[in-house]
Fold these 2 entries.
Entry 1:
Amino acid sequence: MKKPIAISDSANFYVSAERIFDPTLKNVPVIVLSNNDGCAVARSDEAKALGIKMGEPLHLIRDKVAAHGIRVFSSNYTLYGDISKRIVEVYEDFTPNVEIYSIDECFLDFTGFKDRTAHARALRSEVLKRIGVPVRVGIASSKTLAKCANDVAKKNPIFAGVLDMMDETLADLILPMVPVGDIWGVGRQTQKKLHGVGIYTAADLRGMPLRQARTVGTVVLERTVLELQGEPCLSFDEVEPQRKGMAVTRSAGTPMTDFDTLFQAITAHATRAAEKLRRHGLVAGTLTVFYHTNRHRQDRPQYSGSRSTRLMPMSSDTFDLVNAARRCAQAAWPKGKVGSFGFTKAGVLLDDLVRFEDRPRTLFDVARPKSAALMSALDRVNDRFGKKTMVLASERMKRPWQLRADHRSPRYTTRLSDLPVVR
Amino acid sequence: MPVHRVERPVVANGFQMRLVTMPVSAGFPSPAGDDLEDEIDPMAWVVRHPASTFWWRVEGDCLWDVGIRDGDIIAVDRAGKKRLGRAVLAVVEGAVTAKILRKRGDQYYLAPANSNEQFPDIELTEDSEIWGVIAGVVRRYDLA
């Protein structure tokens, strides 16, 4: 007996989230920009119809934006995260088993529900009613097939947002119409290779001999073929592997030219990384700092610097990480023509992460009994009174390097000062 | 029966449960044990459905008679039942408004609740939408 897996997601999720609180966005073209207001990462159907492409840089579409009155938003991840969390809460009323795949996609275990289509319709209308975001549901016996069903449901209004492909005759009908490049896990390169051997549709790929699949595109493609045959290879609730490394990097709103400004940004990133470590109960063994100029501005002097250092002993202490980051940043700082470089990106990478309990002890461990208490006090203050209530002085209070987000909507759901207003 | 020390907060339905800090003796039950109660949480009393409740700030006094004033913060529940006589948030011609849902004959309309000032009734058309039902109101007064 095959287990039904559903995937529910929202088309243009960021746009839908913006529309909850601003009814003037209904039926008009809307785009949401990536971090630092670079390019379009979400487009309403109306914006798609105007030919705005995914990932198109804002500066290339300014004319279109002005001519058609396209509404432009910076990404408001605080809002999207809150809405996403609320949607998951609704899903939890419909299945005991929810696996969050991304901010707008969840796999749902639909085992045991008799009329799956009716169940999915009910879920869809509840999310729309309670949160105000339209979602589509695809159901099948493997994750890849469910993704495919979800895609089809999204593109064809006849399905009214729900497609159950557990029925094999229905799958036989639909798969020949799905281009192989639309299948989850089939990238552009693989698609090219598949076309080369005469495989154009999802149905073709489903019928591909496994051995051939492995030679054309490694085990990953072989697994995709099995998944298309309804043989689940990606289990439900696949355990997240233990984190080996983490990164905190940001682009700067205005280029940073002096060391102090750059180091403010790096302090902030190292601070954030230390907080993340402590939240996961980890310590890091290696820290890397990097920064570079804007590579797309070849007319400007280019420089990129990066240094790594061991953390001895391994640590999650903000002061340790910031000190290590300072040494790295200084070591990588360009000699000579100082001030002529405009750094637009800086980041801190941590590697060699282990759980605090498993950290190796060194002979020369300095006993710092107060460090843990200080860090937990710091975290508690920032949890309670808001992020960045207490920061290291080297981060400063003014943050000229901070991201550009000129068109961000209010944090409607998470800030008292940003609540939507009804008159 | 073995007794285990509870070292982390107990979570039920997403809420942290308060633990009784008093040690439990196996002998005579403490006469005070029955009097321990949860901390008062008026927000939980107002917010019946956390996922579907959103907070809005009110500007204007068109719902004065039902106790909603300029500057108040209201909880709006999208899962609330849209019954006649209830205060609702509605989207009319692209604007959001807070009014009382009423019906005259076959026609639904949005009515103000303020006997001191004149606000017009608004007819609900096919394009209007009830955004949610007002679940409660929070107000604070100056202390200084």
Entry 2:
Amino acid sequence: MTLNRTRRTLLAGATATGLALALAGCGLEGVDTGSEASADELSTVEGEISFATLELSSNPDLAAYIEDTIAAFEEEYPGTEVEWIDVPFAGAQEKFAADAAAGNLPDVVNMNPNFAQPLEREGVFLDIDQADPELAAEYVEGAWKGFQVPGMEGTFGVPWYLTSEVTMYNAALYEAAGLDPDDAPETFAELYEDARAISEAGAGEFYGLHPALENRFMTDLAKIGVPLIDEDLVWTFNTPDAVEYVEGLAEMYQSGVFPADSLTQTLNDAKEGYQAGNVAMFPSGPNFLNGIEQNAPEVFANTRVAPQIAAEGEPVNMSVMGLLIPKTSENPGTALAFTKFITNAENQLAFSRVAPVLPSVTAALDDPFFQDDSDGTELSKAVKLSAEGLARAENLTPVQYDDQVKNAVLAKIQLALTGDLTAQEALDQAVEEANAITGGGE
Amino acid sequence: MRPRRLVTPWLLMAPALAVALIFHIVPFFRTVQLSFTDFRLASGGQYVGLENFGALATSDVFWLSAGNTLIYVVVAVPLLVTLPLLLAMLVQPKIPGMAFFRASFYTPVIASMVVVGLIWVFLLKERGPVNWLFQTLRIVQQPLPFLTDATLLLFSCILVTVWKGLGFYMVIYLTALANVPGELHEAAQMDGAGGIRRFFSVTIPSVRPTMLLVGVLSAIAAMKVYAEIFVIAGPTAGPGGQVRSMVFTIREVGSGFDGQVGYAAAMSLVLFVFTIGLTVALQKLSRENAEA
């Protein structure tokens, strides 16, 4: 019995040691960065590639568009084959990280700049400026810059589709508050003034605005001209202007301009509030209009759109989605050709007709589709407004503003809103925490 | 004959062993390994010795997370040990219609925590049904900030954990109660013991091992709390991040391409040690009680 127990203990010990030793040999390397493609490889367009998108297949029209575009590419380039993979947004980062570590990333990957930045920094993706120096001139400048990494030469992705928000507002709630729905807010001061009037009229039944800190806090700071992060990647957004802005937010939260529960809520709650007719204003991309039409036809009927608000001389915000080619791709020439093909003016225009997004190539933006709102619908007006805004649009969210930084910053701002910290204390602490996470100033 | 006798059991166990090895044992050892590194998914890492553990010891966020997790355990576990037992006794009698109540109490167990969390967010809103009820009954003058005050948020999350776990532990207790010999109750009754006396003198001693099991299971579950906090307190874990649990912080610092996986692994290891320590302490406490 004793012998058996000793043997069992020994066996367990040996197994554990074996596993520990085996794992000690397990690598601590990061992602597989592959090697730069040669000119020959880049000019060879043949063979099979995989193409990963982020949650596009749930819309049948969009799925059909992608499949048709792939078929057209395969027809134009005989001998090529594109396998389409659609990845759900939740968990995509983990999947791509595992793929990148194994050197198995799809040949063309759809990511936004924040998503892509840590991998770009490690040198995972092809430098498009080197691979095709002519390409940059064809794309919206602000969008092209989205795939550049501070302190590094090159551009590591091609912008694909863009969204630029407009101010959506509920005309019925404007009227209920005695405001003129034809007089949309054009400045932050007017936005907050309207919000205050509407919330007072709503008396808890409806509100003027949901702060949606998660989505808007950092970009709103940029829109009033606050410098968010400097060239040395040190966060710098605790300026007097930012203090004044946060003091304004805190005053509005404490006096009931924003819903009380909005403090800890997310963008989704702000969307739901607008769709439920409980919130009068919601800045968002035109693509949200389709959702309102489907989920809340009555609110949709009352919805009007106005240009995105930013301080004079400051940029407006746009969200960028791009396509990146990992250097581990076995057919980088095909991947590059496909990236150029699906982002060309013709294909992006077709994309924008299926989903209310904006193209990243300037040639497509000149199409009357983005200039003509004569049908009188709010959707075409929203598309026109957001397309017009692109000229001064930038991806205002710094690529270093990932979830961890965002939560650390917003946690402090929440305390400023409740009055537990002053605006200055909250911003100072937020900057300190953000720098601690991203290594700013080290 | 002998080799075959040796091979067959291993063959039968192979699938389960493979699952355990791939999904539990290897990840555990990998976590131990990573806890001594500064590994990040994108950039990789190097061995840094005990640096992560040193950083944890001086991290306010870690101690806040550990403190909240401890509060969670101290409040939720006693409730999850006692309330399901009372519930089980309530639905134990075999009378018509009781199956409906047993099924009803079990329903939250099947529902996803996210759905349950969202339902409670609706109930606990400033202008939600709970505040309406409290104000109508004049229990409070002003609505209670269940979703924006750090203390109330923590207790709101605990409430949801307890509410969702009631049915699960009730079923465990139902099995234990069915095994309590009826003669014991009859004998106690003949000796003149009332319902309360029988509960403490017959029921509790008979289900004590089950109470320990429920205590251990609920303590482990409370140590791992995450979804309730994310859904109810939001992605910042309440204003100022004051409601964060250990798993919440582990996920926050360790996820994403740039996540500090090594640091998160070190925190996971500390959580593992806390959990084992708590389990052993509960067992010891129970043994001492039984011997007393």
